[in-house]
Amino acid sequence: RTAHSPHAAVRVVGRPVYSVQFHPEVRHTEGGFAILGHFVDMAGLRGSWKSGDFVERQLDVIRSTVLAPPKQNGAENGHGAATTNGATKKKKKKSVFVLVSGGVDSTVTYALIARALPEDRVKGLYVDTGMMRLNETETVRASLSQAGFANANLHYVDASDRFLRALEGVTAPEEKRKIIGREFLAVQRDECAKILHENNDTPTQWLLGQGTIYPDTIESGGASGSKAKAADVIKTHHNRVPEIDAMIAQGLVLEPVAELYKDEVRAVGERLGLPKAMVWRQPFPGPGLGVRLLCVSAEDAAAAATEEDRQLRQRWAREIQDAPVFASSFRRVDVDVPPLRSVGCQGDSRTYRHFAVLSGVRVGHQDEEAIDSATTTTTTTWEAVDALATGLVNGHDDINRVVLQLFPTASQSTTWSLTPNAPHCCTKARLDALRRADALATNALVEAGLMQTIWQCPVAMAPLTDDPAVAKEVVILRPVDSTEAMTASFSKLPFAFLETLAETIVRDQPDKIAGVFFDVTNKPPGTIEWE
């Protein structure tokens, strides 16, 4: 029993059955590994898993899956062909087409498969979706070349027009993810068809190799074909769309790291001898900036413009501001609830709710806690902000995130409205604006020596403006600390650095960017990505 749950841990009397209502395997659970260790002991098992053993086992699995002679219905005729119903057919050899993004998961997957198979049995495919980071393709080419993958079997395809056409008019986060997943599969099939056409004398059955890791499966609702599939879908990963599930059921997908967490994948990458810079590169989602660019339909925009919706959000803001967790030290903080929602995760279930914007907050050192009556700004600590954000989300069913307003200045109370001229979808112009802001944030973190102190820094963009007549947007900084991606804490970066970065981002694109937010929500209740 804990302060938050009457049954945090249970035991079935008379039976060897135990249960916990939390995740002992994630790093943020104190004593979690000890709990798992006790379970292993009680079950009479041995904790014998090692990354080195994993590599050798996976190499054997890949070889047996791809290189084993195919089963045939009928007898062989002695010339490498099988006869079925009187017809003679050539045996199809198996080869693997690996989707490579340049991220650690897909790179380790490609390295494992490339090490296990002859060079002519594996091909890598890097797809530029038009939703990549600034200069991403050039960076991926260089890093893969450094890793020893600069050969004719690594293909680069610019499919940006194709992906953006498929996303025209689409605003729902889940639908965007599913479309992106389907397009990845379609591009892979098209590229396979080209190779088959070029080598039509050698019939080949192509398997799909992809860098799925365990959190991808959990957040997509569980493993395909398993009882775990009944789990709640938090967000559909591009490698878990129905078409991929169907291929998995047919045995046409290789996912050698699918049971690993991010930190374990990195350990395998180091074991394989991949460059450190590649193994420890910041994670980047398969759907790219497509899930960092928030979208709004014309229907949702019209609903948000009604007086009823405005009054409802104002009531939420007052309730949040009146919450006991605000206490006296936050009494000068203003709250706004914009007409926009994001994806979150609470109680292992997906949420899609509004978020609260706090203005009037600055973060200093412990001895700087004060209320500045001259600037109407509360100076506090990151620990206090952390407790406040957690308390607000846990205490209010209508929000799943809390952000601090960095620009306009923290002391300026702002009411945010939707950017005019909805719908707002994934367009090249919006993606270009987000790309520039993302590059500025990344470069600033590197130059300040802060990049190595965080796990990753997603940068999102949302169609919100401080002037309903002006078509601008806001940039959202989301640096987090994590190891396995199942849980994460927002990174407590120097506030002066954040203020300077926010001003730099706005000054760089003053005609497009109206403000900058800093996400202070942990995971859970927020997901790492906003969509």
Largest sheet: 7 strands, mixed
Which radius of gyration do the C-alpha atoms yield? 25 Å
Strand content: 15-25%
pLDDT averaged over residues: 84
Inertia-based shape: globular
DSSP E strands, number: 23
Q: Separation of termini? A: 34 Å
Query: In DSSP terms, counting alpha (H) and pi (I) runs of 4 or more, how many helices?
Result: 15
Please state the structural category: alpha/beta
Structure overview:
The chain has helices at residues 32-42, 51-67, 104-116, 136-146, 160-166, 173-198, 214-219, 242-249, 262-271, 276-279, 298-304, 307-321, 382-395, 428-447, 495-508; strands spanning 9-12, 17-20, 81-84, 87-90, 93-99, 122-128, 154-158, 204-209, 253-254, 334-336, 341-346, 349-359, 361-363, 370-372, 377-380, 399-407, 417-418, 459-462, 464-465, 473-477, 480-481, 489-490, 513-519. The protein is α/β, with parallel strands linked by helices and 531 residues long. The radius of gyration is 25 Å and the shape is globular. The chain starts with 8 loop residues before the first strand and ends in a 12-residue tail after the last strand.
